[in-house]
Write a structure and sequence with these properties.
The structure is a single chain. This protein is 17% helix and 37% strand. The chain has 830 residues and is α+β, with helices and mostly antiparallel strands. It has a domain at 13-288: YVTN repeat-like/Quinoprotein amine dehydrogenase (Methylamine Dehydrogenase, Chain H, 7 Propeller), CATH 2.130.10. The strands form 13 sheets. A five-stranded antiparallel β-sheet has the order 21-22-23-24-25, with no helix packed on it. A four-stranded antiparallel β-sheet has the order 1-2-3-4, with no helix packed on it. It is elongated, with a radius of gyration of 34 Å. The N and C termini lie far apart (94 Å).
């Protein structure tokens, strides 16, 4: 903090406010308003006021170039005054009986809230006309603020804080916040958190429901002011001769002494880099955030007070680091994927960590609020053009536009970027996520809709666009994951989640839930085989992280967290799945198998099984499933390998993934009508099977025969009118049905491509000894589809013999009838 050697104001400074062009206006008990520069030097006297000024607020437009449109001041005589930038009084309104203690614009500048010593909280139009009396307290109201959605106001009176909705039918919220009078409050629109200051010498952080998130230790003096930074990452606390910079969770970054008496008011610049404090001694204290640091892998970036960025490779002892000087103040920085992006007040710099001497540079039109990076692109969010996607070669890729989007409210949590997709929480409807194409900025698909309000989202950064996944955390702290192109795949992973993060180079997902660290080493298993979710996950104790930890970064096999007390804590996870990702990407499946055999860990085997099934590497999947004793799944994989056509195998794998409609579509597109009909029979979709048979005028008798046998086994009579109708019209002859099945099999064999092993031959299971079989012990006398009706779930096996082709020959159906054969169900074939 810094201030002039001699105070410009001779009496108490009661309030102050920044304009978008970083000029400061201060008000004092001299009844004078002064204008100051960003360097802390007074520039000129603006105007005199005929009353003592108690509060002062500029309405800051979302477009920086348009400047502030209007300022409002509250006075001790109960009036509010609307002022132009040159100090001309536009309007004077008698607002309260007694002094006006607080004034506040809403975020859109369309309404004004005032609070006074008379205990009233009132709403006014932008032109100064009274709209309504929102609330009346039992004592003086010292501070009033708007909620992030502008649908309610928060105010403090006595020891209590109250939230009053604008709608009369909505119920207000009130709670006791401090042991003594509450002096100041602030509500941040980015993180939706409330901070309060009280005469009990404490500051506290609350959520929007009035639940306490943090309380400070008692200081020596009353806390007289608090104010959130625009980005919601910090807030400043003012007391007697000291200003404290705090993290959003409450712990203190630094304490800066000053000679100003009690800091009665604190205001941030719109870019969040500087603050100014109004001192009771007449001093105006100026400060700026310094020593901001970023880290990524072995690189660390630090910003000092001279707007110099120092980049250091911590693994290179001989490296003194790269030092970059910037003419303007640095507003935002981001370091990831071998690139450093630095945004100053007017310019954006793109550095490669391999070469800092020749950065790419382009001009900015507004204040940068956020920088996000992916492997190929990065996003810059400013108040003028909103979201802008650039390549690291300084090429503008797209400028996505979203209706009702307020760029100043975007943060890393309600927007996420990947190489092919942008995800944004819809401000108009927080229960849905908008998906945009990175290259064009246009909607990618239908929004992802949820039943609860969504508070945090993240896209994974690796893999194909068809495998792009999104995690979300809702207001109930439940963690969900879904594929971006298939919103219907939304699946719950965990509850009571504090934070979650994707690994930067693999699809590994980590989360802290109920004091435990959960790591999903292959989240895609949800869409391959849900039965293996638990097998591919690790759970470890995380009580050492304390309450409400936050991820700092997650790369390789190391997670770094920020505890609630500000300390950094790191922990390692199992390293072998990351090696599996590398081998799978290179197609080195034999190395995957060798690694799993060397490690001898069920988690590694389960990950390998799911990866191999997803990549259609059935030989590797066989070995992995045998190692984790998944006998039924192993048998089904063996059956899939024996299917003579590639389309048939693909359809069975899709069926294994629990997507029967997609499997049917694939078969129909390939002209494999008979297999599509039998697929529906196997999953007991009888009506759909009959519809296909009728539509294509083939194998109606097959559907009716299997249906009749199925009902006979259950001891039931046919009750479906459609089946009753065709049973009267179609004659059932099992010899004819079996003959047609053999013909279809032969036809498919001629047009198909047999499965070719991609790895070394595997010993047939029938040759394994029961006591030596790592897959759990069984023989290939089971039918190929015994009990496997849908999704790989197992059932009872058959004692029938196996033909030379590996298919069940108990009823002569050539293996097509599968789970619907009577022999598999345990009775004889008629």
């Amino acid at each position: 903090m810094s201030q002039l050697p001699k105070n410009k104001h001779t009496q108490m400074v009661t309030s102050l406010g920044w304009t978008p062009d970083n000029q400061l206006y201060t008000c004092s008990d001299e009844k004078i308003i002064w204008k100051w520069g960003l360097d802390g030097e007074p520039q000129e006297k603006v105007c005199d006021v005929d009353a003592y000024i108690t509060d002062f607020k500029w309405y800051v437009s979302s477009r920086a170039e348009s400047g502030p449109e209007l300022a409002v001041i509250g006075c001790s005589d109960g009036t509010i005054r609307l002022l132009a930038k040159n100090g001309r009084e536009e309007k004077k309104v008698s607002a309260h009986t007694g002094a006006v203690s607080s004034v506040a614009w809403n975020s859109e500048g369309t309404a004004l809230a005032t609070a006074g010593e008379d205990g009233f909280v009132k709403q006014w139009s932008r032109s100064g006309n009274l709209r309504s009396k929102l609330a009346q307290a039992d004592s003086s109201v010292y501070c009033v603020k708007w909620s992030p959605d502008n649908q309610s106001v928060i105010y403090c009176s006595g020891r209590y804080i109250s939230i009053k909705p604008l709608q009369v039918s909505s119920k207000p919220v009130k709670w006791k916040a401090h042991d003594l009078t509450v002096l100041k409050i602030d509500w941040n629109p980015i993180n939706n958190l409330i901070v309060s200051a009280g005469e009990d010498c404490r500051y506290k952080v609350w959520d929007s429901f009035g639940r306490q998130m943090y309380t400070s230790k008692a200081s020596d003096y009353a806390i007289t002011s608090v104010s959130w930074a625009p980005n919601g990452e910090y807030f400043a606390v003012g007391s007697f001769n000291v200003v404290t910079l705090c993290d959003r969770t409450g712990w203190a970054h630094s304490r800066s002494p000053c000679d100003s008496g009690s800091i009665l008011n604190i205001e941030w610049t719109s870019d969040g880099t500087h603050i100014a404090g109004a001192g009771a001694s007449g001093a105006v204290a100026f400060g700026q955030i310094v020593d901001r640091s970023l880290s990524w892998r072995n690189f660390q970036v630090t910003l000092n007070e001279n707007n110099q960025v120092l980049v250091k490779d911590i693994l290179n002892e001989n490296s003194s680091g790269e030092e970059q000087d910037f003419g303007n103040r640095v507003i935002e920085m981001s370091l990831a994927y071998n690139h450093l992006v630095v945004a100053t007040a007017k310019t954006c710099y793109i550095f490669s960590i391999k070469n800092f001497s020749t950065p790419h540079i382009f001009d900015l039109q507004g204040t940068v609020n956020l920088i996000l990076q992916s492997e190929k692109y990065f996003m810059v969010v400013d108040n003028v053009k909103g979201m802008q996607i650039y390549s690291y070669e300084n090429k503008l890729i797209s400028n996505p536009k979203v209706a009702a989007l307020r760029p100043q409210l975007l943060k890393c949590g309600n927007v996420s970027l990947s190489d092919d997709c942008i995800a944004v929480i819809d401000r108009a409807n927080p229960q849905q996520i908008l998906l945009l194409d990175t290259s064009s900025g246009k909607p990618l698909c239908d929004p992802i809709k949820h039943t609860e309000e969504i508070v945090d989202i993240a896209l994974n950064q690796v893999g194909l666009s068809s495998d792009r996944k999104l995690t979300l955390i809702d207001a109930n702290r439940d963690l969900y994951v879904c594929q971006t192109h298939r919103p219907e795949t939304l699946t719950k992973l965990a509850a009571m989640v504090d934070c979650a993060m994707w690994n930067d180079s693999t699809e590994i997902l980590a989360a802290v839930s109920d004091s435990k660290l959960l790591v999903w080493f292959y989240p895609n298993v949800i869409y391959v085989d849900k039965d293996l979710i638990t097998a591919t996950r690790s759970v470890s104790d995380a009580t050492f992280l304390g309450k409400i930890p936050k991820f700092v970064n997650f790369f390789d096999n190391r997670c770094t967290f920020r505890r609630a007390d500000g300390a950094l804590q790191s922990c390692n996870i199992l390293p072998y799945p990351r090696l599996l990702y590398q081998y799978c990407k290179q197609g080195r499946w034999e190395h995957c198998t060798r690694l799993a055999r060397f490690v001898k860990d069920d988690v590694v085997w389960a990950c390998l099984a799911a990866m191999a099934i997803h990549a259609q590497q059935l030989d590797t999947a066989e070995v992995a499933l045998a190692a984790i004793d998944e006998v039924d799944k192993l048998q089904y994989i063996q059956f899939i390998k024996q299917i003579p056509s590639q389309e048939g195998r693909n359809a069975e794998l899709i069926l294994y993934n629990r997507r029967p409609s997609d499997a049917e579509t694939l078969l129909l597109q390939a002209g494999m009508i008979y297999r599509a009909i039998l697929t529906n029979i196997r999953i007991f979709a009888w009506e759909r099977a009959l519809d296909l048979a009728i539509q294509h005028k083939t194998h109606v008798d097959t559907v009716l025969a299997h249906r009749e046998r199925y009902l006979k086994l259950l001891g039931k009579e046919e009750s479906n009118p459609l089946f009753q109708k065709y049973l009267k019209e179609v004659k059932i002859d099992w010899a004819t049905i079996n003959t047609k099945a053999e013909q279809e099999l032969e036809k498919e064999s001629k047009r198909g491509t047999p499965y070719k092993s991609m790895t070394k031959p595997i010993v047939p299971i029938s040759k394994m000894q029961l006591n030596n079989n790592p897959g759990g012990g069984f023989s290939n006398s089971f039918g190929p589809g015994s009990g496997v009706a849908f999704g790989g779930s197992g059932g009872s096996g058959s004692s029938g013999s196996s033909g030379s082709s590996g298919r069940s020959s108990c009823c002569g159906c050539g293996g097509f009838c599968l789970a619907t054969c009577a022999c598999i169900a345990g009775s004889s074939v008629p």
